């Protein structure tokens, strides 16, 4: 809520009150993330990696294995499990993660 007030005050100082109120309403009425099902999280499969890649959630290197989503993005197992418990979309491309996309 503090973030919303700061944005509202900043936008009011910077521009018009109308723009500030529009920003405020967009923040308040934006949809909440939908968590993934436990079944989906249980179906994540570790894949052996041929090269070292960076996990875009924690920014650390994945040395041996990672989870590949249907969209092709790769993450540490712990990182993507925590993410999907809160949000059912890929943190990089925003594509919805489904059981069908994991199996393709």
Give the tags.
RING_finger_E3_ligase; 104 residues; Herpes Virus-1; 12% strand; metal-binding; zinc ion binding; alpha+beta; 3-stranded antiparallel sheet; 43% helix; two-stranded antiparallel sheet; elongated
What report would you give on this structure?
- A hairpin with a 6-residue loop joins strand 2 (53-54) and strand 3.
- The chain has 104 residues and is of the alpha+beta class.
- The protein has helices at 2-14, 17-28, 38-42, 77-86, 99-103, and strands at 46-48, 53-54, 61-62, 65-68, 74-75.
- The chain starts with a helix and ends with a helix.
- The strands form 2 sheets. It has a 3-stranded antiparallel sheet.
- The chain folds into 2 domains: 1-30; 38-103, Zinc/RING finger domain, C3HC4 (zinc finger) (Herpes Virus-1, 2-Layer Sandwich), CATH 3.30.40.
């Amino acid at each position: 809520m503090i973030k919303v007030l700061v944005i509202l005050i900043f936008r009011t100082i910077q521009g018009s009150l109308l723009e500030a109120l529009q920003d405020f309403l967009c923040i308040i009425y934006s949809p909440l993330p939908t968590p993934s099902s436990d079944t989906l999280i249980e179906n994540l499969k570790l894949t052996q990696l041929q090269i070292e890649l960076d996990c875009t959630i924690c920014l650390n290197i994945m040395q041996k294995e990672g989870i590949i989503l249907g969209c092709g993005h790769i993450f540490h197992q712990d990182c993507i499990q925590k993410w999907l418990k809160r949000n059912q979309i890929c943190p990089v491309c925003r594509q919805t993660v489904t059981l069908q996309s994991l199996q393709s």
